[in-house]
Design a protein that fits this description.
Blueprint (H helix, E strand, L loop, with lengths): L9 H22 L1 E14 L2 E7 L5 E5 L1 E2 L9 E9 L2 E14 L6 E20 L4 E12 L2 E4 L2 E2 L11 E18 L2 E18 L2 E19 L1
Antiparallel strand pairs: 1-5, 1-13, 2-3, 2-13, 4-6, 5-6, 6-7, 7-8, 7-9, 8-11, 9-10, 11-12, 12-13
Length: 225
């Protein structure tokens, strides 16, 4: 009498096949997730925007401010971003060390700059394409380091640990970029950014309140692991 081996149920065969496919795909899924660090330099154009300077016992000064950036004069303008990439999306934390120099100061303002940082810190969502094109949107805060002399009164240094840094207001950013592989996991690319913010900064005996809008063009190098 010939005995035939029992046939394996179709459901068990399908399960084995699915498990094999999952194991084969696992390395690719893991490889699609990585940390990336981006760093670079750039230039910016600041749109003329309103500023109001209030000082105790004095009339308020209001004007449409024109700002220079001077990106390649120390301290340099720079960008740094740490990003977690998962396939076609990313989540990152970015710092732009932006700088502002008031070019059309009225006679009562002897010096007004935020040059050791009109620092824009944003949490960003990224959308990434295989051809290197990317889009980003983010929101966060402005951390400023103002240096001012208004009506011959120099602003005393305060802020965090008396180092002159202040959390000064909200900020938002939209960006588009393009990058390509350089070598290994290193890439280079360019990004254009639009930034909007509002900031309140201290002066001697008062404060200044300003709106800010700027367009940026940055060159970046990134590495992943």
């Amino acid at each position: 009498m010939i005995r035939r081996s029992p046939r394996r149920p179709a459901s068990r065969s399908a399960g084995v096949l699915l498990a094999a496919l999952a194991l084969a795909a696992a390395p690719r899924l893991a490889a699609a997730q990585e940390w990336r660090f981006h760093a670079g330099v750039g230039v910016a154009y600041n749109l003329p925007a309103a500023i109001a300077i209030a000082q105790d016992g004095e009339p308020e000064l209001s004007l449409t401010a024109r700002w220079a950036t001077r990106p390649f004069r120390t301290p340099l303008y720079y960008v740094g971003r740490l990003e977690r990439v998962d396939g076609a999306r990313g989540l990152g934390l970015e710092l732009i060390h932006h700088k502002l120099f008031l070019e059309n100061a009225p006679v009562d303002v002897q010096h007004f700059e935020i040059s050791h940082g009109f620092n824009v810190v944003t949490l960003q969502r990224a959308w990434l394409r295989a051809d290197g094109v990317s889009w980003r949107a983010g929101a966060g805060v402005v951390v400023t380091h103002p240096e001012t002399i208004v009506r011959e009164r120099r602003q005393p240094r305060g802020g965090w640990g008396s180092r002159g840094y202040y959390v000064s207001g909200p900020a938002a950013q939209l960006a588009a970029g393009w990058s390509r592989r350089l070598v290994g996991r290193a890439r280079w690319g360019v990004e254009g950014k639009l930034i909007g913010a509002h900031a309140s900064v201290p002066i001697a005996g008062g404060s200044a309140h300003l709106w800010h809008a700027s367009a940026h063009l940055d060159a970046l190098v990134s590495v992943g692991r």
